[in-house]
Amino acid sequence: LFAGDWQFFWAAPSIETLPAMAGIEVAFAGRSNVGKSSLINALTGRNALARTSHTPGRTQELIFFEGPENAGFRLVDMPGYGYAQAPKAKVASWTALIHQFLQGRSNLARVYVLIDARHGLKDVDLDVLNTLDKAAVSYQVVLTKADQVKASELDQTVAATAAALTKHPAAFPEILVTSSRTGAGMPQLRAAMVRLIGE
Ligand code: GTP
Ligand code: MG
């Protein structure tokens, strides 16, 4: 699945412009700048597949990427939430789009909720976890930018996050620790997705 070429497939600025459902979709959610687009690039081994930026608010649409040879598998990059500096109306419309997509897409097999390892779970993250719990969409928390924190701090964040997740029925108890910069956690994340499609 991750050996072949991944390609851009579709960009949806609104819930009305989504592509027809086909195959299995896996989406990446998280606060602005948490590293969603970078993670997709690291996973697929394509540096500039998803557009990244050091300024929050880079991804402004739901962006669909298609796996190699019609594997029937798509990755969905999403706008970030919780970005206070963007115009209020934009933040509100991105947030609504994210929540609508997450609860209304029946071929959405898994959501990876990305959390910055330096910051841990925030209230805006909990809103998304609650939406996923209500919709019974299975999700797993992925800590990003692990290269930026000390091992001891990382252990604490993992423990605190795991404790919080016990209250969330649709969450995987296991937390993945990743860095798009060093590639840490990528084999585990790829393996999890391969298991999803039963390859
Ligand atoms: P939005 O689309 O704006 O919501 O952001 P995003 O979540 O897609 O984040 P993006 O991938 O654009 O990355 C944001 C910034 O974080 C960029 O400057 C990346 O280079 C940086 N970044 C992403 N992943 C890592 C990582 O694992 N380690 C470090 N040190 N920096 C990272
Ligand atoms: Mg992005």
Automatic annotation (TrEMBL):
Necessary for normal cell division and for the maintenance of normal septation. Residues 22-199 form the EngB-type G domain. This is Probable GTP-binding protein EngB. Keywords: Cell cycle, Cell division, GTP-binding, Magnesium, Metal-binding, Nucleotide-binding, Septation. GO terms for cellular component: cytosol. It comes from Bradyrhizobium lablabi. Belongs to the TRAFAC class TrmE-Era-EngA-EngB-Septin-like GTPase superfamily. EngB GTPase family. GO terms for molecular function: GTP binding; metal ion binding. It comes from the Bacteria. Its cofactor is Mg(2+). GO terms for biological process: division septum assembly. Pfam families: MMR_HSR1. The keyword Cell cycle applies. CDD domains: YihA_EngB (cd01876). Transmembrane segments: none annotated. PANTHER family: ENGB-TYPE G DOMAIN-CONTAINING PROTEIN (PTHR11649:SF13), MSS1/TRME-RELATED GTP-BINDING PROTEIN (PTHR11649).
